User: What shape does this take?
Amino acid sequence: MDLVPALQEPLKQPLKSVLGPATAKVMAEHLGLHTVGDLLHHYPRRYEERGQLTHLADLPMDEHVTVVAQVADARLHTFASSRAPRGKGQRLEVTITDGSGRLQLVFFGNGVHKPHKELLPGTRAMFAGKVSVFNRRLQLAHPAYELLKGEDGEAVESWAGALIPLYPATAKLESWKIGKAVQTVLPSAQEALDPLPESLRAGRGLVTLPEALLKVHRPHTKADIADAHARLKWDEAFVLQVALARRRHADTQLPAVARVPGPDGLLAAFDDRLPFTLTDGQRKVSREIFADLATEHPMHRLLQGEVGSGKTLVALRAMLAVVDAGGQAAMLAPTEVLAQQHHRSVTEMMGELAESGMLGGAEHATKVVLLTGSMGAAARRQALLDLATGEAGIVIGTHALIEDKVLFDDLGLVVVDEQHRFGVEQRDALRGKGKQPPHLLVMTATPIPRTVAMTVFGDLETSVLDQLPAGRSPIASHVVPAADKPHFLARAWERVREEVAKGHQAYVVCPRIGDEEDDPKKAAAKKSAEDEAEKRPPLAVMDIADQLARGPLHGLKVEVLHGRMQPDDKDAVMRRFAAGETDVLVATTVIEVGVNVPNATVMVIMDADRFGVSQLHQLRGRVGRGSAPGLCLLVTEMPEASAARQRLNAVASTLDGFELSRIDLEQRREGDVLGQAQSGARSSLRVLAVIEDEGIIAEAREEAAAVVAADPELERLPGLRTALDALLDEEREQYLEKG
Assistant: This one.
């Protein structure tokens, strides 16, 4: 966020005398710190207090203390140990006194040389460390110390009360070495160019950037740290929001073909054949989308919808509007199972409207084609021909749509399903296939807290579908503690049999397939388990399906579905399940999104603690899609007090996806969430926390939009332009690394 010329100097040159090339190399390779500016923006993660000055007579146990005392005695001992079997081990014992009591300091190994030279009897110094007991005597092991010259009372007070910054470090470079290097380059902070407009900074009472850098690295008080963080959070939020606002602004400058559906075309015919009325939410979101499609610059809209809120229907109506207006629409899905499912549900919803050129096709019909990587050569050739000639108005596919050989006659709309599975560059590659930039609709069923939407998807306008369609039933969710109460698990399988007896169907979800080669090294390495449940491998589809078919679900029709099956086999399994020919489908998370079987009413998730909160919410959304109530059973062997059980209890207690997404975000590193954008800039937040700092992000977005509207090229704000270049350089680097 920095990088003005003075701060762009490589660390090797200015710090040669302090770090040496080896340390500069470690900083570059392990911490990504290449320049003086990088180092100044490597902020402490927390601060230790050395402790107030303590009299030796009042030392508290196990606390960090700082004492001022005089060396009474210093003795070097040699001893034999496993590391030094020939009696060459060294231990320095130093006794200090302050008049109120005596205390022993101990130093071992190579750490004895410096204090042995400096801590001579009569020397006065400050010592800081943690009080422990050895042989019934209080001691400080390897304390930090500073020699005092004369009666330097002020030095004593400032050193004792100092806040010690602790930096994100590596095994090869300790925090204190990083701190020392930072102190060396700290004078350069005065030359840091401020990215915030002066009116914004002064209006919010924020300190200047040089002052913030000084206070974050060398604070005298906790108020200094608060001032620095308040300022640096604004830098991160504002520069990122300016980058996003410029992207939005650039998009509004692009030309696009306005797509307005005719009054009596395909969309009207489709609406006439719908067997139900749209919800208020679907109508409102559709109005927003149609208004965007009617403009002559590309739509960029994020459609968030709770599981089962009818996003696919909204997207289909948008695609039909574009086809009506003479264009083509493409839907990009993350998996073949989902692409096939979407293709099947779209053609079913459209009926004869999807049968252009076929017997029985309607007057306004178009062709809906599927394009995936594993299609047969003949079917693929035909699909490509239909797209190139414009015969197919709608194509639904996987990454195969992005390939060079895929050509469109007139691509007018790109719909990306489950945006978090795709990088920005992939969605841009598909948009590049239009003669002019096509409109873009991005969909996600993973509810995103408002601030994450503003940060990760800040270049998109947002629409939210939070109403469930009429006739949808609530889903009851319960945790099944299989280890504590095995009879609960037995009852879960009884419930599955009861639902099947009523004519319904069930899903059983497992974390893995079960035909993988287990890596014995990985198995051996897993030592930090919470309990036995965590140590064993996750339950597998193949094993569980076999156990159920022979045991508690004997006599029911059980089938398996997983990602490594052949596409035709997967499709056949899904068709049989959708047709009601299969009672129980044992599957991996391939059913997580988009799979729609209204007759499925119960889901049992094995080893539920191995899944994330949002993923469990997604999976649960596969049941309760018809008029019968849904039931989701979260099976776990984790103990009641564990964090994993608390997470499952949270999922069981609410159906509000937005509430769960906040819980999910609070429990994970924010980088994971921000990393979904596959963009370095968005995961490079150092002090900004997307949940806690919602207010700052919202205000920064407004300020950024105003700044970019008034000065799109930022000609009047050179500091901001420099910060932006630094941010986007990092972003481009990340793209290249991700291939």
The radius of gyration is 32 Å.
